[in-house]
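so my prof wants the structure for this chain in the tokens format not the other one, which i didnt know existed until like an hour ago. anyway here's the sequence
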Amino acid sequence: KARCCSQATRARKSTHLMKLTVGRGHRAATTVARRLAHVPAAAAGRLRVDDKLKAFVDDELLPGTGVAPSKFWDGLSSILEDMAPRNRALLDRRDELQAQLDAWHRANPGTPDPTAYAALLESSGYLAPAAPPFEVCSQHVDPELALVAGPQLVCPVDNARFIVNAANARWGSLLDAIYGTDVLPGDRAGAYKPERGAAAFGVAHSLLDESFPLEGEATWSDVTALSVAMRDGGAASLQLSLASGGEASLRDGAQFVGFLPGVPTARSVLLGKNGLHVELQVDRSHRIGATHAAGIKDVQVESALSAICDMEDSACTVDAADKIVAYGNWLGLMRGELSVPMSKGGKEVLREMNGDRTWTSAAGPGSVTLPGRALLLCRNVGLHMYTDAVMLGSEEVPEGIVDAMVTAAAAMHDLQGNSRVTNSKTGSVYIVKPKMHGPEEGAFTAELFSRVEGELGLPLHTLKVGVMDEERRTSLNLRQMMAATKERLFFINTGFLDRTGDEIHTSMEAGPMMLKADLKGAPWYSNYEESNVDCGVALKLVGKGQIGKGMWAAPDDMAKMVRDKGAQLAAGASTAWVPSPTAATLHALHYHATSVKEVQGGMAARAAEIASRASSQAAGLMTIPLLPAGGKSLSADAIQRDLDNNAQGLLGYVVRWVGQGVGCSKVPDFDNVQLMEDRATLRISSQHIANWLHHGVVNEEQVLETVKRMAAVVDKQNLGERGYKPLAPSFDGPEWHAALELIFKGRDIPNGYTEETLSRWRRVRKAMEEVEEVEQLFSKDAGGGKDELKKPAPEVQISPSPPPRPHA
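here's what i got, hopefully its the right format
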């Protein structure tokens, strides 16, 4: 008890000390946070490593890889000694370029002269020199990324239940996706409704008619039985009995891929189109199959071909303990053994990673085996993130370097066949790298991966890189970025949300930005999306990797997604992000309707046309989305409406991130529409308010009044949420201070990134919760330490000084 009381007192004093140190530099703030957590560090060569992180690496991560702990830590130390100073120099270069842009815009306010602006970007080095002719030459890329177009899930890796569901989202029930969403209008609440189930079958029949049409005038709603006829040589044909008494076949017999035999009809029929598959499961004894004329109990759609296991924007990992959870889940995935106990139908079940699926081949003797899981990728953090879980002397180290070593070491279990199931069949590890600014940072990442491969004994180019095209300097230099990563590149992906946040911050001094809803209609956006696809096609990424598009952010509006998201494929994308397994199943239908291979092939045939529009795309990308006339034509109502929307969204996300450690979730917007929010959406909201505040579109009093009013809205929206800590009426918790810092200091935060502010205040909240736990433990005890423990926690305030930069 004495020890716990002493720790609680020390935590209280350290929380009080936070008043004096927050804002004076990241290392000072982190030192306090380490006192709060009271984290011991173990020596590992020249490093100082959190005890529990070292134990995880030594005892769980490395056994079975052939890499000794001393080899791992010495290798990491060597990489950090060489590359940590260069990481810092790249961040300093970002600041240097931003300072030049800020000064130029202050001297030349408003929409810049295109020629003068382009000259600035060239002379400063913001625009990199053109790359010599090249083509992407990545090898050993799995077909889910290189050859077959399909949906991609993004899921926080620190949530085991979510990530197991994401891994298993390779296959999804079309009937469930239709029945349980607004794709089928009407009431879907409560117990199963047979009439709604019949209507769901009706929608499924129509979709089957589009993807797998039958001969003549027959439709899938006419089918009463599915049977397989064997031919000489072991090949099989699919015969469909019709309600009229006749029979029908597929219009394209090659779409019949496989089956599971049964009596009197097949138990399963596997169909294929554009490299994707659909399984018709037949069981007349099943409660659903008994209601269907042909006994179909389910229509399983091959859905998420790949899934990003996210350590970045959708995760919440602020200290060694959080990172161990994320690393542990990734390790479990790479071993094929991650599982989660769940309650289903009143029974406890263990949800595990699915095995592969096998059918008898329709083409002849043999079988067809398809993966039961999405191909798993791992998104590491960006260059700007630093961690104190590993220290080099007294210095924090770039978290992304630690991520790369741990991610690769965990994947060695898969590469060496130690896993219960196989992830990569080509011997590759896929790491998505976010928030890179320009080709120098791409080259740095490629070198880092080479160093990691060398230290772990992996073949060169085992580690592949996915480039997030989400920062303005990368968009304008995408060809050069691809040149820097050409041997490792497996995707280029547009990320509209972060890209918008960077668009605002980069041109913060130019003037007030458009209304948030109008930013997507500005010239920069269409040129951004088009240029990304053009670069992928022109530089021969097709056939070696993906051209990706961004997230559908409204998980409850599946009907609109089904109507609209197919446009991304028509524009040349081979994958697009979805927020849930259900969304992946519905989005997969777009890949049936559109042959991405044909779209991209047609674009490649127009190479001259693509090359001719590169200069106009660059000009569009350099068009700053400013409000006309400095916003003077906007009505007061329009301004307030946008401010309300930004403030409500910002608070709705911050309260869950800081208060509950939830990095990504459905957050209701100002109109109570559920939106999938992560740090990218927060970056837009905070930067937009900061921009308007800086240019006088709104004032401090108006912003503070709005934020307080929206706090009441957010509190009401979270009423009854377990563990929720209201913002009002005290307006004095870590969540509140984090929100104010993001707004009122947003102009000075490097690149407008929210991570440092969120992480610092999350650590304060975690420390306060630890103190509360100790208080509760001894609240009924008498004696020493009781009075001290019952004193209210001191107020935590933010410093009026500018926020620290993450690597300062």
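also thought this was worth mentioning. The mean pLDDT is 91.
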